[in-house]
Design goal:
By secondary structure, the chain is of the alpha/beta class. Helices cover 38% and strands 18% of the residues.
């Protein structure tokens, strides 16, 4: 009997994870390390979808305060997600993981157009699928894109890989006495305005009964260990 609790997962990575110790951009040693973690679970016949943010390159929402039109800023951010997706695809294919980038924005030289049935077929053929370009619409974050794609491909869970080891009642980087939650309900996240994912994403997950787990993606073997013992690592919302 398989020790793994989930057959198909959607991994959500923030763009900041890819920047490592840099203030911005891509640190390729970090991308290579992420690719190795992903390969470890791919070898176990787990079907993997991935959504990556672009906070290491561009934040559309922050440019509005500086005078840029929000719609233009959001589209630039979507293009940033494509850059990150291609960088991760490159590292995955270096270590013999068959990978496809599918984009909600049309950029055929780098990515296939996103078509739900085709994405599902790639997963069934044991290809890793990286969903780029957000939802293809402004005003929606990559958190919402991750929730939407996870629901569309019938993923068993969203695994949000961050730089912290779960959800706390306050910022652990500021408050040394912050308390980590092992589990939460969607209602607790919404009522307490916990910064797990944006409220649109949380609501989508709640309505579709899709669990979310928050783990430290930089910790060695954390992704594999979570899939074996999900109750022992990070925070789960369900």
């Amino acid at each position: 009997m398989s020790p793994f609790h989930y057959k198909r997962v959607l991994i959500k990575l923030s763009g900041e994870v890819l920047s490592g110790k840099k203030e911005f951009g891509i640190e390729y040693s970090v991308v290579a390390s992420l690719a190795k973690q992903i390969k470890e679970i791919h070898k176990e016949k787990i079907e993997i979808g991935i959504v990556i943010g672009a906070g290491n390159i561009f934040r559309g929402v922050s440019t509005e305060e500086e005078g840029m039109d929000r719609v233009s800023g959001d589209y630039i951010g979507m293009m940033g997600t494509i850059m990150n997706s291609v960088a991760l695809q490159n590292e995955l294919e270096k270590i013999n993981c068959d990978t496809r980038v599918m984009s909600a924005l049309s950029i055929r030289q780098l990515a296939e157009p996103y078509i739900r049935r085709r994405a599902t077929r790639h997963l069934e053929k044991s290809r890793i699928v990286i969903f780029a370009g957000g939802t293809g619409n402004p005003y929606f974050t990559t958190d919402t894109a991750a929730a939407l794609r996870a629901i569309e491909i019938n993923a068993d869970i969203i695994i949000k890989g961050t730089k912290v080891d779960g959800v706390y009642d306050s910022d652990p980087n500021i408050n040394n006495n912050a308390i980590k939650h092992d589990s939460l309900t969607y209602k607790q996240v919404i009522d307490n305005e916990l910064k797990v994912m944006d409220m649109t994403a949380i609501t989508l997950c709640k309505e579709n009964n899709l669990p979310i787990s928050v783990i430290d993606i930089n910790s060695k073997n954390n992704l594999l260990n979570f899939l074996i013992s999900p109750s022992k690592i990070g925070t789960i919302i369900k």
